Amino acid sequence: MFFLSPFELKGDIDSVFERDPAARSILEVLLCYPGLHALILHRFAHRLYLARIPLIPRLISHGTRFITGIEIHPGAKIGKKFFIDHGMGSVIGETTEIGDNVTMYQGVTLGGTGKHSGKRHPTLGDNVVVGANATILGPVHIGAGSRIGAGSVVVRDVPHDSTIVGVPGRVVRHKGEKTYDVSLEHGKLFDPIESLNAKLEQKMAHLENRVAELEKEKRRSA
Amino acid sequence: MFFLSPFELKGDIDSVFERDPAARSILEVLLCYPGLHALILHRFAHRLYLARIPLIPRLISHGTRFITGIEIHPGAKIGKKFFIDHGMGSVIGETTEIGDNVTMYQGVTLGGTGKHSGKRHPTLGDNVVVGANATILGPVHIGAGSRIGAGSVVVRDVPHDSTIVGVPGRVVRHKGEKTYDVSLEHGKLFDPIESLNAKLEQKMAHLENRVAELEKEKRRSA
Amino acid sequence: MFFLSPFELKGDIDSVFERDPAARSILEVLLCYPGLHALILHRFAHRLYLARIPLIPRLISHGTRFITGIEIHPGAKIGKKFFIDHGMGSVIGETTEIGDNVTMYQGVTLGGTGKHSGKRHPTLGDNVVVGANATILGPVHIGAGSRIGAGSVVVRDVPHDSTIVGVPGRVVRHKGEKTYDVSLEHGKLFDPIESLNAKLEQKMAHLENRVAELEKEKRRSA
Questions:
Q1: Contacts of C166 in chain A (CB under 8 A)
Q2: What is the ipTM of this complex?
Q3: N or C: which end of chain A has fewer CB within 10 A?
Q4: CB-based contacts of A77: which residues, under 8 Å, 6+ apart?
Q5: Where are the domains of chain A?
Q6: Helical segments of B111-191, H only
Q7: How far is C67 from B2, CA to CA, in rounded Å?
Q8: Would the CB atoms of A132 and C109 count as touching at under 8 Å?
Q9: Count of H helices and E strands in chain C?
Q10: What is the pLDDT of residue A192?
Q11: Which pLDDT band holds residue C135 (cuts at 50, 70, 90)?
């Protein structure tokens, strides 16, 4: 009852092939994907945690961190086909909830805020992608299909199908539909400073035209 | 003389319970907190370093990095009740100085700049909190009670009781008094781009009113 | 034929002394520099990869990641005198190309975008420096001598001898000549928000003067 069913394992292996073009063979995936190792060990530790067995789940999580560089608290709820690529330095907190088909890269923190012991870590909807070194803090909700850009910091709720960039993170794209392939191109970022510059420059140019018109008028009447 | 005194150890263990709501028992803390392991091993290596014993301190630091994912140069001076939570990927440089009750998360760099061999790493005052994946570079001084937001990059001095956010980091809050609990909520960030936008929009609206007034005048006199 | 030549090894060791002021002796460098261990093991795995030996190169890379916290895909092409300082959490992708004398710190990602299997990782020119926790994504080209600031995210080409800062990264400095020593001071950053603020404030002050002039005129004629 505590171990991974063959169906779960197959789903977790399939997700590697679906999302990493460098994957070559099942043997390679089983031997060389620390994200898969961490996930298998976590699914086991999580069952012990739910059965309220003390200490052992934390020890498994600690051992997993040593072997894989990925730290998942045994309390975290993780959906089907979760894929952590590379994963070194990732931390997933106790009250985190992760939907199905979520992809996460290395250095990602799904962390808590405050000192209370209730729900204090993020909830990620289905198909979310979290880029390398991104940090999501607190009991925020990341809507299904959203992509958190590499190096971004998110501390507020994010609507579904959005793209987040920056420190702190801003929603830079949001649309109802998106093809699956696009959702993995976590490299296409947007520049919020350039955007602010363009907006203010345009407003100022408009105002300047009005002032120039007044000056022309003044010269004419003089 | 080289080993940790029971009092030091007690302070270091207490700091885990004070600052991590997920901590359950002393046994769990002793077995599963890599930040505590790294700190105990560092306190030992630092004494050997001060006694000018060659190579061994560096080897202990290197072994600690392998076991915990946390790299503390044996030369770093660290105060009482230092707490590194998770800690994977953190690097603390040779001439770093850390005050009492400092809290640090995973992926944090307290790094050096330049190639000279004198003081080249940061100094952190008491009660400082450094968020996940934050980077502090050079011989800068972080004032007591300040909080460095997750993912931020700091390369200048920071006054006491300030909050820093962004790449590069900006002081976004500064006040004389703060309750202890608040200082751990490293999730409440401030948006410097939104703030700049609001300020400039307000100025421009004021200017626009003056132009509109002039235009009205012109129409009246025409 | 598969092993490192003494000349290659000497170049790799020399680069540690040239770039880390904390390095004391050859023994210390050989024993305590995980970046050097990762590089030596990678140079071996890369030769097996070029000889089209299956699985083994990936296993070496996976073992190297476990030992050093640094993950270099065996396919990555790396030039002479590459130096990874600290390195925990760094990931270098399969189709990455790195020139000579490149320096990289911990938490750096040279990552891929998309799901196609051709060239999908960055190319770094000679003498490039990549700061801690920086992320470079996609088949972009980083020009020779450029410096990527700590915590920055780069998803576009970068010209030679430039300095990049921010999430997303912006070119903040660019000049033809630079002394070697300067290139290591990765702590001197530039603030793009402050710069935008200064530019817009100046423009607005100019416009305000013109409006004030018109208002004075109006009062005179009234």
A1: 193
A2: 0.80
A3: N
A4: A46, A96, A97, A98
A5: 6-190, 191-222
A6: none
A7: 28
A8: yes
A9: 5, 15
A10: 67
A11: very high
